[in-house]
């Protein structure tokens, strides 16, 4: 089948947002009077759990932090406040898109391909990031978005990719996913979508077996990617034409 769509993850893939999420969590914990501190090593472990509310609940259950039981029923409220704090941080444009992301999106659209999102983060988070980095509403950039609040089961379940495929009106073999994590890879593959991995600072040591390719980033004319594993794309960048040739 011919390639008809490229589907992007968001956190860690479009931009290195996870550190901003970690800082927002810690600042909100402090604002709530919670003596919790998620350092980088702990946060890397917690990222195995997808979804912010799920991550907080997992932390309370597994690490039994002070005041954890008191907060358990207020997790949605705590996470909402954290998300608002995160969006304020992102809105100032301090977190740029990763190399090659904007280029590949524009190439894909110029080539007549659909561009979508499949992410465990929320729709407002995606909107804030895209407005801050591309200066446009997300709906003008993406043909369809499947976001965390729209499904019951988040990655590594295939639900988000199945929803994105449905919204884009394409078959799994007509799409390629761009991801940064093992959970994202598993989600896409379970939906039947081949996947290119661009590891982020928090996922570089994860197992990406069965990825189509693993590259340092998508590449720019003056910033070639490093090939890590899998399929060897020619050139210095992952392009829409290269993806299309592989699928065709």
Per the principal axes of the C-alpha atoms, what is the gross shape?
Answer: globular
Span from first to last CA? 6 Å
Low-confidence stretches: none
- What's the CATH architecture of the largest domain? 3-Layer(aba) Sandwich
The tally of domains stands at 2
Tell me the radius of gyration. 18 Å
pLDDT averaged residue by residue = 95
What would CATH call the homologous superfamily of the largest domain?
HAD superfamily/HAD-like
Give the SSE order as H and E letters: EHHHHHHEHHEHEHEEEH
Give the CATH level 1 class of the largest domain. Answer: Alpha Beta
The structural class is alpha/beta
Helix content: 40-55%
Strand order of the largest sheet: 3-2-1-4-5-6-7
- Number of distinct beta strands: 7
Helical segment count: 11
Tell me the CATH topology of the largest domain. Rossmann fold
In terms of quaternary structure, the protein is single chain
Strand content: 5-15%
Major sheet size, sense and barrel closure? 7 strands, mixed
């Amino acid at each position: 089948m011919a390639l008809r769509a490229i589907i992007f993850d968001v956190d860690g893939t479009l931009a290195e947002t996870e550190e901003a999420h970690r800082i927002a969590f810690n600042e909100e914990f402090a604002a709530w009077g919670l003596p919790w501190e998620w350092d980088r090593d702990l946060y890397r472990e917690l990222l195995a759990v997808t979804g912010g509310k799920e991550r907080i609940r997992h932390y309370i259950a597994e690490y039994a932090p002070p005041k954890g039981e008191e907060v358990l029923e207020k997790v949605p409220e705590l996470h909402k406040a954290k998300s608002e704090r995160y969006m304020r941080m992102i809105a100032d444009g301090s977190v740029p898109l990763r190399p090659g992301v904007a280029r590949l999106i524009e190439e894909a659209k110029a080539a007549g391909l659909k561009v979508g999102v499949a992410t465990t983060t929320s729709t407002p988070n995606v909107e804030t990031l895209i407005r801050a980095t591309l200066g446009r509403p997300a709906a003008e950039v993406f043909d369809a978005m499947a976001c965390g609040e729209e499904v019951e089961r988040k990655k590594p379940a295939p639900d988000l990719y199945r929803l994105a495929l449905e919204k884009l009106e394409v078959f799994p073999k007509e799409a390629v996913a761009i991801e940064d994590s093992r959970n994202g890879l598993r989600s896409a593959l379970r939906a039947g979508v081949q996947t290119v991995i661009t590891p982020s600072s928090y996922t570089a040591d994860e197992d990406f077996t069965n990825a189509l390719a693993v590259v340092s980033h998508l590449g720019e004319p003056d910033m070639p990617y490093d090939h890590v594993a899998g399929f060897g794309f020619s050139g210095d960048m992952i392009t829409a034409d290269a993806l299309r040739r592989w699928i065709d």
